[in-house]
């Protein structure tokens, strides 16, 4: 009875401390230090929820595990005057069932929730408002605005005189806010990865294979993008920006591109790998 009372009195300040810590969390901490926010796209809230929930569960598992380790080390330590090995616990069926079933439930739970969210994120959008084709190339990006028959050819980032990266001439992808987007992802040479950091999702660009992303940007702003797959000497300079703008500003940008001579599509003619299976040139295995 005395031991139970001590445990209850010890739990009270622990609960108060946890409540204070949680109450003082910033928005960044509440979303697991992920960039952006839940309103960036129609998927970011779901991704943040999966990430934060996973860390809460794993943190709880970690606390219990460390508590049991410390408890066993303290309670079953060798006392003064003791010799030989301590009493060994073997073939304890309840404990063995516990440490088999609980991890299995955790793994199945993580798999189920991840598969559920990934299925939603990867679900193709029927009749998207805007179709974009993105070509990754060493070490820049080309953007085709398929729906609007315009394009933008990007160049590699360079350095300023002080050694910082010059971001003034980065390739820029324009997207209209609150419109469903389909992004077709291609590579001109090696494996790249299309990653808009605040969108919390990336997709590999495989030579000879088309990948797709589907999302709706829901917050106007400028977002940083980069290649997330090591692709050679200037991988770190393979940067771009995404500008989510109003429909009026998007239409104005498309009109300006066409007026500047960037009407039409920039295709696979500039691909380095011209003998890939299915493109009609070279020997096919």
> So what's the CATH class of the largest domain?
Mainly Beta
The low-confidence parts are none
CATH topology of the largest domain: Immunoglobulin-like
Radius of gyration: 27 Å
How helical, in percent, are the residues? 25-40%
- Superfamily at the CATH H level of the largest domain? Cupredoxins -  blue copper proteins
User: What is the averaged pLDDT score?
Assistant: 87
* CATH architect. name of the largest domain: Sandwich
Strand order of the largest sheet: 3-2-1-7-10
Identify the overall geometry. Answer: elongated
Report the portion of residues in β strands: 15-25%
- Give a count of the beta strands, DSSP E runs of length 2 or more: 12
Furnish the topology, listing elements before pairings.
Blueprint lengths: L1 H22 L3 H4 L13 H32 L17 H30 L7 E8 L2 E6 L4 E4 L4 E2 L5 E2 L5 E5 L4 E7 L4 E5 L4 E5 L5 E5 L5 E7 L11 E7 L1 H13 L26
Parallel strand pairs: 1-7, 6-12
Antiparallel strand pairs: 1-2, 2-3, 4-5, 7-10, 8-9, 8-11, 11-12
Helix pairs in contact: 3-4
Task: For this entry, give a set of tags.
2 domains; Immunoglobulin-like; five-stranded mixed sheet; elongated; alpha+beta; 285 residues
Overview of this protein structure:
The protein has a five-stranded mixed β-sheet. It has a five-stranded mixed β-sheet with strand order 6-12-11-8-9. A two-stranded antiparallel sheet has the order 4-5. A hairpin with a 2-residue loop joins β1 and β2. With 285 residues, it is an alpha+beta fold. It has helices at 2-23, 27-30, 44-75, 93-122, 247-259, and strands at residues 130-137, 140-145, 150-153, 158-159, 165-166, 172-176, 181-187, 192-196, 201-205, 211-215, 221-227, 239-245. α3 (44-75) runs antiparallel to α4 (93-122). It is elongated, with a radius of gyration of 27 Å. The chain folds into two domains: 2-78 and 87-122, no CATH class; 130-265, Sandwich (Immunoglobulin-like), CATH 2.60.40.
